[in-house]
Here is the input.
Amino acid sequence: MRIQDEPDIPFTINIVPMIDVIFSILAFVIISSLDLTRSQGLPVNLPSANTVQQQPSTDITVTVESNGSIYLNKEPIELNVLTQEVRNLVNPNNPSLVIINADEGVEHGQVVQIMDRVRQVEGARLAIAAQKSR
Here is the structure.
């Protein structure tokens, strides 16, 4: 008995399913990375500085818009209750970083008033947001 030789079928790799899988992974990474970016405060035109340093992320951000509106973690707040609300967020045993995110058009006096209110809170460290000069 003789075994008949089968014709040689060339070996092929179908890459279409592999492209689908890679595209799905890429889409997942892009979509999930959008959720990982953390907006700290409302968007304002920050002043520029050459000595800007990256700070660790914080849970406390005071935003001052160009019209003078004040926000604590994206919630509107009045200046006279700012100290108490920041005190409620800060643990005196574990110092917290409070970032002041003020628009460059805000009056200097208003930023100083906010800084003074934040400095009255025990355990609050103060930082002012700025963007790196180009």
Notes: The longest strand covers residues 96-102. The mean pLDDT is 79. The helical segments are 16-36, 82-89, 108-119. Residues 96 and 124 are 5 Å apart (CA to CA).
